Protein backbone atom coordinates (compact mmCIF):
# COMPACT_ATOMS: atom_id res chain seq x y z
CA UNK A 1 0.00 0.00 0.00
CA UNK A 2 2.79 2.44 0.92
CA UNK A 3 4.70 1.59 -2.26
CA UNK A 4 1.61 2.21 -4.36
CA UNK A 5 0.95 5.54 -2.66
CA UNK A 6 4.56 6.63 -3.21
CA UNK A 7 4.41 5.62 -6.89
CA UNK A 8 1.21 7.62 -7.31
CA UNK A 9 2.80 10.72 -5.73
CA UNK A 10 5.85 10.39 -7.98
CA UNK A 11 3.71 9.99 -11.08
CA UNK A 12 1.67 13.05 -10.13
CA UNK A 13 4.82 15.09 -9.53
CA UNK A 14 6.37 14.11 -12.86
CA UNK A 15 3.11 14.71 -14.68
CA UNK A 16 2.93 18.21 -13.23
CA UNK A 17 6.46 19.02 -14.38
CA UNK A 18 6.11 17.50 -17.84
CA UNK A 19 2.66 18.85 -18.69
CA UNK A 20 3.59 22.50 -18.29
CA UNK A 21 5.06 24.75 -20.94
CA UNK A 22 8.56 25.96 -20.06
CA UNK A 23 10.61 28.65 -21.69
CA UNK A 24 13.77 27.14 -20.18
CA UNK A 25 14.70 23.86 -18.53
CA UNK A 26 17.92 24.11 -16.51
CA UNK A 27 19.67 20.85 -15.60
CA UNK A 28 21.85 21.15 -12.50
CA UNK A 29 21.39 23.43 -9.49
CA UNK A 30 25.00 24.19 -8.61
CA UNK A 31 26.20 27.80 -8.79
CA UNK A 32 26.18 27.89 -12.61
CA UNK A 33 22.72 26.37 -12.96
CA UNK A 34 21.29 28.42 -10.11
CA UNK A 35 22.63 31.70 -11.51
CA UNK A 36 21.42 30.76 -15.01
CA UNK A 37 17.93 30.02 -13.67
CA UNK A 38 17.84 33.31 -11.76
CA UNK A 39 19.03 35.32 -14.78
CA UNK A 40 16.42 33.73 -17.09
CA UNK A 41 13.60 34.05 -14.56
CA UNK A 42 14.51 37.73 -14.12
CA UNK A 43 13.86 38.14 -17.86
CA UNK A 44 10.32 36.85 -17.38
CA UNK A 45 10.97 33.34 -18.71
CA UNK A 46 9.13 30.35 -17.25
CA UNK A 47 12.03 28.36 -15.82
CA UNK A 48 12.25 24.83 -14.48
CA UNK A 49 15.52 23.91 -12.75
CA UNK A 50 16.14 20.28 -11.75
CA UNK A 51 18.89 18.52 -9.84
CA UNK A 52 19.43 14.80 -9.28
CA UNK A 53 20.32 15.25 -5.60
CA UNK A 54 18.00 16.13 -2.70
CA UNK A 55 18.54 19.66 -1.34
CA UNK A 56 20.19 20.88 0.76
CA UNK A 57 22.98 18.58 -0.35
CA UNK A 58 26.60 18.41 0.71
CA UNK A 59 29.27 18.87 -1.95
CA UNK A 60 32.95 18.89 -1.13
CA UNK A 61 34.44 20.62 -4.18
CA UNK A 62 34.43 24.29 -5.01
CA UNK A 63 34.24 25.96 -1.57
CA UNK A 64 36.42 28.93 -2.54
CA UNK A 65 35.19 31.87 -4.63
CA UNK A 66 37.48 34.37 -6.36
CA UNK A 67 36.64 38.10 -6.08
CA UNK A 68 35.37 38.08 -9.69
CA UNK A 69 32.91 35.31 -8.87
CA UNK A 70 31.63 37.11 -5.79
CA UNK A 71 31.20 40.36 -7.73
CA UNK A 72 29.32 38.51 -10.51
CA UNK A 73 26.93 37.10 -7.91
CA UNK A 74 26.32 40.55 -6.48
CA UNK A 75 25.74 42.08 -9.93
CA UNK A 76 23.18 39.36 -10.60
CA UNK A 77 21.35 40.36 -7.41
CA UNK A 78 22.37 37.14 -5.63
CA UNK A 79 24.93 38.55 -3.21
CA UNK A 80 22.82 37.42 -0.26
CA UNK A 81 24.08 33.90 -0.94
CA UNK A 82 27.46 35.04 0.44
CA UNK A 83 26.15 36.04 3.86
CA UNK A 84 28.33 34.45 6.52
CA UNK A 85 31.16 33.59 4.12
CA UNK A 86 34.74 33.69 5.43
CA UNK A 87 36.98 36.24 3.68
CA UNK A 88 40.67 35.47 3.23
CA UNK A 89 43.39 37.84 2.01
CA UNK A 90 46.52 35.66 2.27
CA UNK A 91 47.81 32.76 0.18
CA UNK A 92 50.61 30.61 1.60
CA UNK A 93 52.50 28.53 -0.95
CA UNK A 94 54.93 25.78 0.01
CA UNK A 95 57.27 23.57 -2.02
CA UNK A 96 60.45 21.66 -1.23
CA UNK A 97 60.84 23.13 2.23
CA UNK A 98 60.26 26.72 1.09
CA UNK A 99 57.17 28.67 2.14
CA UNK A 100 55.94 32.16 1.26
CA UNK A 101 52.89 34.12 2.37
CA UNK A 102 51.44 36.31 -0.39
CA UNK A 103 48.83 39.06 -0.16
CA UNK A 104 45.85 38.47 -2.47
CA UNK A 105 42.51 40.07 -3.24
CA UNK A 106 39.97 38.91 -0.67
CA UNK A 107 38.52 35.49 -1.49
CA UNK A 108 35.33 34.03 0.00
CA UNK A 109 35.00 30.50 1.36
CA UNK A 110 31.58 29.02 1.97
CA UNK A 111 30.22 25.49 2.13
CA UNK A 112 28.40 24.45 -1.00
CA UNK A 113 25.46 23.15 1.04
CA UNK A 114 24.59 26.75 1.86
CA UNK A 115 25.78 28.51 -1.29
CA UNK A 116 23.88 26.34 -3.77
CA UNK A 117 20.68 26.42 -1.72
CA UNK A 118 20.78 30.20 -1.37
CA UNK A 119 21.35 30.78 -5.09
CA UNK A 120 18.47 28.46 -5.97
CA UNK A 121 16.28 30.27 -3.45
CA UNK A 122 17.08 33.50 -5.26
CA UNK A 123 15.99 31.90 -8.54
CA UNK A 124 12.74 30.73 -6.95
CA UNK A 125 12.06 34.21 -5.62
CA UNK A 126 12.21 35.42 -9.24
CA UNK A 127 9.65 32.83 -10.32
CA UNK A 128 11.71 29.75 -11.26
CA UNK A 129 10.42 26.35 -10.18
CA UNK A 130 12.92 24.00 -8.54
CA UNK A 131 12.60 20.21 -8.42
CA UNK A 132 15.35 18.26 -6.62
CA UNK A 133 15.83 14.51 -6.60
CA UNK A 134 14.99 14.43 -10.31
CA UNK A 135 17.43 13.00 -12.86
CA UNK A 136 17.50 14.52 -16.33
CA UNK A 137 18.73 13.45 -19.76
CA UNK A 138 18.62 15.49 -22.97
CA UNK A 139 17.01 13.47 -25.77
CA UNK A 140 17.92 13.58 -29.45
CA UNK A 141 15.02 15.96 -30.15
CA UNK A 142 16.13 18.28 -27.27
CA UNK A 143 13.32 17.14 -25.03
CA UNK A 144 14.39 16.48 -21.43
CA UNK A 145 13.61 13.08 -19.98
CA UNK A 146 12.95 13.44 -16.25
CA UNK A 147 13.02 10.43 -13.95
CA UNK A 148 12.40 9.70 -10.29
CA UNK A 149 13.22 6.08 -9.58
CA UNK A 150 11.56 4.06 -12.33
CA UNK A 151 9.02 6.75 -13.21
CA UNK A 152 9.75 8.79 -16.35
CA UNK A 153 8.34 11.68 -18.29
CA UNK A 154 9.49 14.24 -20.86
CA UNK A 155 9.60 17.98 -20.23
CA UNK A 156 10.04 20.45 -23.06
CA UNK A 157 11.54 23.89 -23.01
CA UNK A 158 12.16 26.42 -25.72
CA UNK A 159 15.77 26.37 -24.49
CA UNK A 160 17.63 23.72 -22.47
CA UNK A 161 20.54 24.80 -20.24
CA UNK A 162 22.89 22.01 -19.14
CA UNK A 163 24.85 22.85 -15.98
CA UNK A 164 25.42 19.43 -14.43
CA UNK A 165 29.17 19.74 -13.87
CA UNK A 166 32.18 17.63 -14.78
CA UNK A 167 30.54 14.36 -13.78
CA UNK A 168 27.06 15.01 -15.15
CA UNK A 169 25.30 12.61 -17.52
CA UNK A 170 22.57 14.79 -19.03
CA UNK A 171 24.29 14.85 -22.44
CA UNK A 172 25.40 11.24 -22.48
CA UNK A 173 24.51 9.78 -25.84
CA UNK A 174 24.60 13.16 -27.60
CA UNK A 175 27.80 12.74 -29.63
CA UNK A 176 27.92 16.36 -30.75
CA UNK A 177 28.51 17.31 -27.09
CA UNK A 178 31.07 14.56 -26.34
CA UNK A 179 33.87 15.26 -23.87
CA UNK A 180 37.41 15.63 -25.14
CA UNK A 181 39.50 14.85 -22.07
CA UNK A 182 43.21 15.64 -21.67
CA UNK A 183 44.33 12.25 -20.34
CA UNK A 184 47.55 13.80 -19.03
CA UNK A 185 45.75 16.34 -16.85
CA UNK A 186 45.56 16.07 -13.04
CA UNK A 187 42.77 14.32 -11.17
CA UNK A 188 40.68 16.53 -8.88
CA UNK A 189 39.72 15.34 -5.38
CA UNK A 190 38.39 17.11 -2.31
CA UNK A 191 36.98 16.76 1.19
CA UNK A 192 35.49 18.83 3.99
CA UNK A 193 37.04 18.13 7.41
CA UNK A 194 35.92 18.93 10.94
CA UNK A 195 39.52 19.38 12.16
CA UNK A 196 42.26 21.62 10.80
CA UNK A 197 44.73 19.69 8.63
CA UNK A 198 48.38 20.01 9.66
CA UNK A 199 49.43 21.93 6.54
CA UNK A 200 46.71 24.61 6.93
CA UNK A 201 46.58 27.73 9.08
CA UNK A 202 43.70 29.97 10.17
CA UNK A 203 43.00 33.04 8.08
CA UNK A 204 44.72 31.95 4.88
CA UNK A 205 44.50 29.77 1.80
CA UNK A 206 47.27 27.17 1.71
CA UNK A 207 48.76 25.49 -1.37
CA UNK A 208 51.41 22.77 -0.96
CA UNK A 209 53.12 21.56 -4.16
CA UNK A 210 54.98 18.33 -4.74
CA UNK A 211 55.95 15.93 -7.50
CA UNK A 212 52.53 14.27 -7.38
CA UNK A 213 50.50 17.49 -7.65
CA UNK A 214 49.30 20.09 -5.18
CA UNK A 215 47.11 20.07 -2.10
CA UNK A 216 45.18 23.14 -0.98
CA UNK A 217 43.23 23.99 2.15
CA UNK A 218 41.05 26.85 3.37
CA UNK A 219 38.97 27.51 6.50
CA UNK A 220 35.19 27.48 6.18
CA UNK A 221 32.57 29.25 8.31
CA UNK A 222 31.74 27.29 11.44
CA UNK A 223 35.24 25.94 12.02
CA UNK A 224 35.35 23.34 9.24
CA UNK A 225 38.07 23.04 6.59
CA UNK A 226 37.97 22.50 2.84
CA UNK A 227 40.78 20.42 1.33
CA UNK A 228 41.20 20.17 -2.44
CA UNK A 229 43.93 18.57 -4.53
CA UNK A 230 44.99 18.30 -8.16
CA UNK A 231 46.99 15.07 -8.39
CA UNK A 232 48.84 13.42 -11.23
CA UNK A 233 46.94 10.45 -12.63
CA UNK A 234 50.07 8.36 -12.21
CA UNK A 235 50.35 9.15 -8.49
CA UNK A 236 46.68 8.34 -7.95
CA UNK A 237 47.09 5.09 -9.86
CA UNK A 238 50.08 4.04 -7.74
CA UNK A 239 48.99 5.15 -4.27
CA UNK A 240 45.32 6.05 -4.44
CA UNK A 241 44.06 9.59 -3.88
CA UNK A 242 44.71 9.65 -0.12
CA UNK A 243 48.20 8.17 -0.60
CA UNK A 244 49.06 10.71 -3.31
CA UNK A 245 47.96 13.57 -1.02
CA UNK A 246 50.08 12.15 1.80
CA UNK A 247 53.13 11.96 -0.51
CA UNK A 248 52.75 15.59 -1.64
CA UNK A 249 52.43 16.84 1.94
CA UNK A 250 55.34 14.69 3.14
CA UNK A 251 57.66 16.44 0.68
CA UNK A 252 57.15 19.61 2.73
CA UNK A 253 57.23 17.84 6.09
CA UNK A 254 53.48 17.80 6.75
CA UNK A 255 51.38 14.91 7.95
CA UNK A 256 48.34 13.77 5.99
CA UNK A 257 44.76 14.52 7.12
CA UNK A 258 42.51 11.70 8.23
CA UNK A 259 39.79 11.68 5.58
CA UNK A 260 37.76 8.80 6.94
CA UNK A 261 35.83 6.30 4.90
CA UNK A 262 34.15 7.93 1.92
CA UNK A 263 35.27 11.42 2.95
CA UNK A 264 37.46 12.03 -0.10
CA UNK A 265 35.56 12.61 -3.35
CA UNK A 266 36.95 12.74 -6.87
CA UNK A 267 35.79 14.52 -10.03
CA UNK A 268 38.07 12.87 -12.59
CA UNK A 269 40.65 14.52 -14.79
CA UNK A 270 40.34 18.28 -14.68
CA UNK A 271 41.26 19.54 -18.15
CA UNK A 272 38.56 18.79 -20.71
CA UNK A 273 36.27 20.46 -23.21
CA UNK A 274 33.10 19.67 -25.10
CA UNK A 275 33.05 19.05 -28.83
CA UNK A 276 30.37 21.77 -28.73
CA UNK A 277 28.88 23.82 -25.88
CA UNK A 278 25.81 24.91 -27.83
CA UNK A 279 23.66 23.39 -30.54
CA UNK A 280 20.08 24.25 -31.46
CA UNK A 281 18.08 24.78 -28.28
CA UNK A 282 20.79 23.32 -26.00
CA UNK A 283 23.34 25.55 -24.27
CA UNK A 284 25.99 24.23 -21.86
CA UNK A 285 27.34 26.37 -19.03
CA UNK A 286 29.79 26.09 -16.14
CA UNK A 287 32.03 23.07 -15.57
CA UNK A 288 29.77 21.06 -17.90
CA UNK A 289 30.95 23.21 -20.82
CA UNK A 290 34.67 22.71 -20.30
CA UNK A 291 37.38 23.05 -17.68
CA UNK A 292 41.10 23.48 -17.18
CA UNK A 293 43.11 22.87 -14.03
CA UNK A 294 42.22 25.96 -11.96
CA UNK A 295 43.92 28.18 -9.46
CA UNK A 296 42.22 28.48 -6.08
CA UNK A 297 38.70 29.86 -6.38
CA UNK A 298 38.71 29.99 -10.17
CA UNK A 299 36.51 27.08 -11.21
CA UNK A 300 33.28 28.06 -9.48
CA UNK A 301 33.88 31.71 -10.39
CA UNK A 302 34.22 30.82 -14.09
CA UNK A 303 30.84 29.12 -14.05
CA UNK A 304 29.10 31.98 -12.26
CA UNK A 305 30.63 34.62 -14.54
CA UNK A 306 29.49 32.80 -17.69
CA UNK A 307 26.03 31.95 -16.35
CA UNK A 308 25.48 35.63 -15.60
CA UNK A 309 26.01 36.33 -19.34
CA UNK A 310 23.51 33.72 -20.52
CA UNK A 311 20.33 35.79 -20.76
CA UNK A 312 20.48 37.22 -24.28
CA UNK A 313 21.85 34.01 -25.81
CA UNK A 314 19.13 31.91 -24.14
CA UNK A 315 16.43 34.31 -25.35
CA UNK A 316 17.72 34.02 -28.93
CA UNK A 317 17.89 30.21 -28.69
CA UNK A 318 14.34 30.13 -27.33
CA UNK A 319 13.26 32.15 -30.37
CA UNK A 320 14.65 29.42 -32.65
CA UNK A 321 18.11 30.81 -33.43
CA UNK A 322 21.14 28.52 -33.23
CA UNK A 323 23.50 30.49 -30.98
CA UNK A 324 25.98 27.72 -30.19
CA UNK A 325 28.98 29.42 -31.78
CA UNK A 326 28.06 32.82 -30.35
CA UNK A 327 27.73 31.30 -26.88
CA UNK A 328 31.09 29.52 -27.19
CA UNK A 329 32.71 32.81 -28.25
CA UNK A 330 31.11 34.66 -25.32
CA UNK A 331 32.51 32.18 -22.80
CA UNK A 332 35.93 32.18 -24.50
CA UNK A 333 36.13 35.98 -24.32
CA UNK A 334 35.22 35.91 -20.64
CA UNK A 335 37.65 33.17 -19.61
CA UNK A 336 40.49 32.88 -22.13
CA UNK A 337 42.92 35.12 -20.24
CA UNK A 338 42.28 33.50 -16.88
CA UNK A 339 42.58 29.99 -18.23
CA UNK A 340 45.86 30.78 -19.97
CA UNK A 341 47.17 32.19 -16.69
CA UNK A 342 46.05 29.08 -14.83
CA UNK A 343 47.79 26.83 -17.32
CA UNK A 344 51.02 28.80 -16.89
CA UNK A 345 50.97 28.90 -13.09
CA UNK A 346 49.89 25.28 -12.74
CA UNK A 347 52.72 24.24 -15.09
CA UNK A 348 55.17 25.81 -12.62
CA UNK A 349 53.59 23.93 -9.70
CA UNK A 350 54.42 20.65 -11.43
CA UNK A 351 58.12 21.43 -10.85
CA UNK A 352 58.40 21.74 -7.05
CA UNK A 353 62.18 22.28 -6.98
CA UNK A 354 61.91 25.25 -9.35
CA UNK A 355 58.87 26.56 -7.47
CA UNK A 356 60.73 26.26 -4.17
CA UNK A 357 63.52 28.43 -5.59
CA UNK A 358 60.96 30.99 -6.76
CA UNK A 359 59.37 31.08 -3.30
CA UNK A 360 62.75 31.61 -1.63
CA UNK A 361 63.56 34.44 -4.01
CA UNK A 362 60.12 35.96 -3.55
CA UNK A 363 60.78 36.51 0.14
CA UNK A 364 63.18 39.36 -0.70
CA UNK A 365 62.31 40.41 -4.26
CA UNK A 366 60.44 43.74 -4.50
CA UNK A 367 57.03 43.68 -6.13
CA UNK A 368 56.13 40.15 -5.00
CA UNK A 369 52.92 41.35 -3.34
CA UNK A 370 51.92 43.33 -6.44
CA UNK A 371 52.47 40.23 -8.60
CA UNK A 372 50.47 37.95 -6.28
CA UNK A 373 47.51 40.33 -6.37
CA UNK A 374 47.70 40.38 -10.16
CA UNK A 375 47.42 36.58 -10.17
CA UNK A 376 44.00 36.88 -8.52
CA UNK A 377 40.87 37.23 -10.60
CA UNK A 378 39.81 40.51 -9.08
CA UNK A 379 36.34 42.08 -9.17
CA UNK A 380 35.11 42.83 -12.69
State the CATH class of the largest domain. Alpha Beta
- The residue-averaged pLDDT reads 89
**According to CATH, what is the topology of the largest domain?**
FAD/NAD(P)-binding domain
* Main sheet makeup: 8 strands, mixed
Q: Based on the coordinates given, report the CATH architecture of the largest domain.
A: 3-Layer(bba) Sandwich
**Overall number of domains:** 2
Beta fraction = 25-35%
Order of helices and strands: HEHEEHEEHEEEEEEEEEEHEEEEEHHHHH
Number of strands: 20
Terminal CA distance reads 57 Å
Structural class: alpha+beta
Radius of gyration: 21 Å
List the strand order in the largest sheet.
Answer: 3-5-4-13-14-15-12-16
CATH superfamily of the largest domain: FAD/NAD(P)-binding domain
Given as residue ranges, the uncertain stretches (5+ residues, pLDDT < 50) are none
The DSSP helix count reads 10
- Helix coverage percent of residues? 25-40%
Shape: globular
Plain-language structure description:
It is a single chain. This protein has ten helices and 20 strands. It is of the alpha+beta class and 380 residues long. The strands form four sheets. It has an eight-stranded mixed beta sheet with strand order 3-5-4-13-14-15-12-16, sandwiched between helices. It has a six-stranded mixed beta sheet with strand order 6-2-1-10-19-18. It has a three-stranded antiparallel beta sheet with strand order 7-8-9, with helices on one face. The chain is globular, with a radius of gyration of 21 Å.
Amino acid sequence: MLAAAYAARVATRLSGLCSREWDAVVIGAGPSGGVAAAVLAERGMRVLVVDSRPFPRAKVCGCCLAPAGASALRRAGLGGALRGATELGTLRMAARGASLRLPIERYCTIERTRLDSEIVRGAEERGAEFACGVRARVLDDDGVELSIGEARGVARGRVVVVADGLCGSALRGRGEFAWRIDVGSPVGVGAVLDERPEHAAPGEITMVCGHGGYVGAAPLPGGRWAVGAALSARAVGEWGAAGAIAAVLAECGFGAPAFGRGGLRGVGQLTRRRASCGRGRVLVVGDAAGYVQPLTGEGMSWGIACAARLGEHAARAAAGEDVGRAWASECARALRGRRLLCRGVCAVTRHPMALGAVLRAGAWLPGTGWASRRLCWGPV
